[in-house]
Design a protein that fits this description.
Layout lengths: L10 E7 L2 E6 L4 E5 H7 L19 H4 L8 E7 L2 E6 L7 E5 H11 L1 E4 L44 E4 L6 H14 L2 E5 L10 H10 L14 E4 L44 E17 H11 L1 H9 L1 E8 L7 E8 L1 E3 L5 E4 L13 H18 L6 E6 L3 E5 L3 E5 L7 E8 L1 H16 L13 H4 L9 H6 L2 H8 L4 E2 L7 E2 L4
Parallel strand pairs: 8-9
Antiparallel strand pairs: 1-2, 2-3, 3-7, 4-5, 5-6, 8-20, 9-17, 10-19, 11-16, 11-17, 11-18, 11-19, 12-13, 14-15, 20-21
Amino acid sequence: MRASLRRSIQIRAASTSGSQVDIKFSDGAAYRFHGLWLRDSCRDQNHVHQYSTERVLESSPVVCGMNPEGVAPESVTVKSGVLSVKWGANDPVKESSFEASFLRAYADTVAKPLEACLEPEAPAPIEVDWLAPYDSTKQVGQNANGRMQLWKNDDKVPLPYIDYNSLEDPKEHVKFLRTILETHGVCIMYNMPDDPECDGSVLDKFCKDYLGGLQKHPLRDTAYWRISTEESKFDESTSFKSAGDRTGSNSFNTDQQLCNHTDQSLYGTPGALLMFHCAFGQGNNSVTDGFAVADKMRRDYPEYYELLCKYGMNAGRELMYYKAGDITFTTNAPIFNCAENGELSRVQYHEIYRAPQTLSYEIFGEWYKAFNKWYELVHGNEFKRHAKVEKGQTLICNNWRAMHGRAGLKGKARTILGGTVTRDAVYSAGRLALSRAYGVPDVHCGAPISLLPYLARRTAPVLDVASATQRSSRRAYELEMDTVHMEDDARPLKKMMMA
C-alpha cells in the first residue's frame, strides 16, 4: 500500500520574468527554471495520461508546432503547495501544475541556482545505487558501491535461501533483488508452488510477478526450457524423441556433467539472471562466484587478469535440434567484461562453445596461460561449491557473475525448467519494486533512478535531518536484510545477520 502523505518540501515563493520562472523552496534554495523546460516536462493530467504514463500528444510542444523561443509563462501562482503556471493564449495548454517535490528533485540538474540550500531536506531512505550496474549506460561495474560479498567453497558466506511467500511484501521483494543483483549473486528460492504437469507455469508466473518476465528464445515455443530424464517430459520445441537422441547435446544430455559456465555466453548482452526450477526429483548443481575468481586473479595474477579483460575468446554454436529451424551464434567477447569506469561488469564464458582463437602469434601463448589459470580456479576446490535443488525450489543465478554447472545425478529422475531474464527486464523489476515499496508515483517512470528518494511519498517527516543524512548506509542495509535466510550447506533455513 502506498503512503498517503507527500514529501515535506514546499514552495515559499515563485515569480516569472520573460521566459523564466524563479522558485524559492522551504529548504532555503532558490532556482531559475526555463519556462520551456517546465512546459515540456510537466507530468500532470494535461500533459501525461496518468494510467498509461504516456504523453498527451496534443499537449506536446513539438507536436503542437510551438516555437521554442515563444514559450513563455503568462503568470505563476502557488496553490496548496502546488505551482500553477498559466500559458499564453496561443498555447493549447492553458495551465500546468507542478508538485514541489518534483521541481526540487530536478532543480540541481536542470535549473540555475540563485540561492544556496540552508536546511537540507532528508530524502526518503531508499538506496538505489545497487541498480546502477544494470542500467543501459554500463558506466559502473557490479561492485561499484562496495557491498558485494564474494564467496568461495567455505562457510564464510552461506548460500542465501529466500521464502517465495515473502515476496508479496514490496520491501521483501527489494531485499530479494538486492541479494541476487548486489550482494551474493545467487540464491535458492523455497516454498515455490507445485508444478505437477511440469509445464513451466510456476516459473513463468514467478518471473512475470517479480523479475520482469522470462526472455523468449527465437526458436522455442515457450520462454522456458525443460530438461528432463523422463521422455514424456522432453522439451516439445526440440526434435529429441529419446534419451539417445540427446547424447550429442551437452545441454540436454542429463547424464553429462557440465563445466561451470554462464548462459548465453554467445549473446552480445547475455541475460542478467538465470534460474532452474526443480518441478520433479532433485537437481544437482555446482556454482562458482566468477567475481571471486576474477578478484583473486586481479590480486595474484594481474598480468593474466589484464589479458582476459583485453582480449576476446572466440566462440560459436549452431543449433539444429529445434523444430522451428536452425540458428547460429558467433562471438568474440572477453571473459572479463569491464564497465566504463574500469570495474568488472560481467564474466562471460562457456567451454563447450569455444572456437579456434584468432589471437596473434605473439599474444596467444600468454593469453592461454591466463585462460588456463581461470579454468583451474573456477573448477578448483577453493571456489567451486555444491548447490542441491529439491522439488519446489529454484536456483537463481546472477548470470553476469555466478557460474553454474551440472554436477550429475546419473540414474535419478528429475525435471528442471529454466530460463533467463534480460538486463532490461530485471532493471525494470528493480525500479518497480523500489517505486512501489516507497510510494514513487508512476508518472515519474522516466526520472533518473537517483531522483527516486526525492520523489517518493512518505508517511511521516524525518525529525532528525542530520542523523538521517549522515547514517551509515551499510549498517542500514544490514538491518534491512536481516530476515534473509542463509544456508549452512547441510542444513538450510538458518536465520542470521549478513556479515
